[in-house]
Structure formats: C-alpha cells, structure tokens
Amino acid sequence: RNDLAFLEKQGIAVRAYGGALICDSTTPSVEPSVEDKSALNTAMKRSVAKAAVELIQPGHRVILDSGTTTFEIARLMRKHTDVIAMTNGMNVANALLEAEGVELLMTGGHLRRQSQSFYGDQAEQSLQNYHFDMLFL
C-alpha cells in the first residue's frame, strides 16, 4: 500500500480497486482544480443534473461521486426530503449542507486537495456498510 501511495503521489500510477493503474504519459500529471473543471460545459452539467435529480424520490439512498456534475445534482437537491446521500466529495457535501431534508454521509479517507475528494481504503470500506438505490458518477 505504501508503494502504491508513493507511485500515486509521483503521478506514475493511480490507485484502483485491487491494485493500481499506470498513468498514460499523455495524461497531465497535475489534476485540474474543481474550480477549473466547474467552468467547463456548465450548461450540459446543469442539464444532466436536472434530469438526474428528478429520479431521486423520498426514501432513496444515493451515492454522489465527487465532481462538478454531481455538485450540480447536489445543488438541486435542496428541496428533497427523506433522502440519504453519501459522497466522497467535499464540494458535493458543501452543496448538500443546504438540503435540510437530506441526511449527509461522507466516506472519509485520504484527501485529494485539487479535486476535493476522499479516496483510499477508508473511503472504500465506508461504502460497504450501506446499500444504495442510485449512484451518480
């Protein structure tokens, strides 16, 4: 695990379930910030979010991955009630703070500062303790 963490910090590999994936040399080793990513394809993200949020019903348990499209989904969940949402994204969690009818769970784990997301064993293990109706990536 320490070797994988070292390779990930060097931009050589990315940890994945069961091991690691080698980074493509054509892929930039610096991850764009959430702010940079949120400025791209804004209208499309909002359109996807609007359609996605209509699928969420009272009593649902949903996972919202970290990301800018899932942030838009979380932002639109303000009026939802009786929903449990888990995320590994700090930006998504912050958006869900305003959704009083949504119980917020976070995975925890190691923090990727640029993407404001948690990853690693703790994040993966926290997902195993729950059953969900929907997953938004």
From TrEMBL:
Keywords: Transcription, Transcription regulation. InterPro entries: Carb_Metab_HTH_regulators (IPR050313), DeoR-like_C (IPR014036), DeoR_HTH (IPR001034), NagB/RpiA_transferase-like (IPR037171). Residues 41-137 form the DeoR-like transcriptional repressor C-terminal sensor domain. The keyword Cell cycle does not apply. Residues 1-26 form the HTH deoR-type domain. GO terms for molecular function: DNA-binding transcription factor activity. SMART domains: DeoRC. This is DeoR family transcriptional regulator. It comes from Escherichia coli. The lineage of its organism: Bacteria, Pseudomonadati, Pseudomonadota, Gammaproteobacteria, Enterobacterales.
